[in-house]
Amino acid sequence: MMPAHNGLPIVQTPSVVELLSWYDRLNQLSMAERQREINSVVQRSQRHKTDLLRLQAALGLSALDQSEAKQRALALLEPLFGSKTLEPTYRPLVHLLGNLLTEVDKQHQRAEDALQQLKQSQRRANALKSKLDKLKAIEHELPPLSR
């Protein structure tokens, strides 16, 4: 019998399939329960510092919609990319998750850049509108042209 925490099994030496099943069950929890479970796994990974707990914590953090969580997940994965102690069956998952998190980070950065450009364009448009309004006010103050 596998021990459980918040109704989710605490996997001691999970297979890749068990890790992905845990991730699937994690995504079915409410946000508060998901956050508690992820915090629990992250704390265990900090205490025990095993490659598998690190991978599980990174997988859990990747389920959150916060950019900081995804950055923490990528930081947890970093040592696993070249780990000599990580079982070879986990390497594809580590690389897949790392690639996905990197791509999400790039997309987030592109979105941030686009938002900054939009704000800058909006400021320029507002400045131009203000100048146009001033020019129109000056035009109304001019005497009519005689022909």
Compute the CA-based radius of gyration: 26 Å
Structural domain count: 1
Helix content: over 70%
Q: What is the residue-averaged pLDDT?
A: 89
Briefly note the structural class of the backbone.
Answer: mainly alpha
Which sequence of strands runs across the widest sheet?
1-2
Q: Could you list the spans in which at least 5 consecutive residues all have pLDDT below 50?
A: none
The span between the termini is 100 Å
Query: N-to-C SSE series?
Result: EEHHHHH
| Helix count, DSSP H or I runs of 4 or more residues | 5
Outline the biggest β-sheet: 2 strands, antiparallel
Shape: rod-shaped
What share of residues are in beta strands?
A: under 5%
Q: How many β-strand stretches?
A: 2
How is the secondary structure organized here?
Layout: E1 4-5, E2 8-9, H1 16-27, H2 31-48, H3 51-62, H4 67-81, H5 91-141
Antiparallel strand pairs: 1-2
Helix pairs in contact: 2-3, 3-4, 4-5
Describe this structure in words.
This protein has 147 residues and is mainly alpha-helical. The chain has one domain (4-140). It is 73% helix and 3% strand. It has five helices and two strands. It has helices at 16-27, 31-48, 51-62, 67-81, 91-141; strands spanning 4-5, 8-9. It has a two-stranded antiparallel ribbon with strand order 1-2. A hairpin with a 2-residue loop joins strand 1 and strand 2 (8-9). Helix 2 runs antiparallel to helix 3 and helix 3 (51-62) runs antiparallel to helix 4. The longest helix is centred in the last third of the chain and has 51 residues, at 91-141. It is rod-shaped and about 95 Å long. The model has no long low-confidence stretch (mean pLDDT 89).
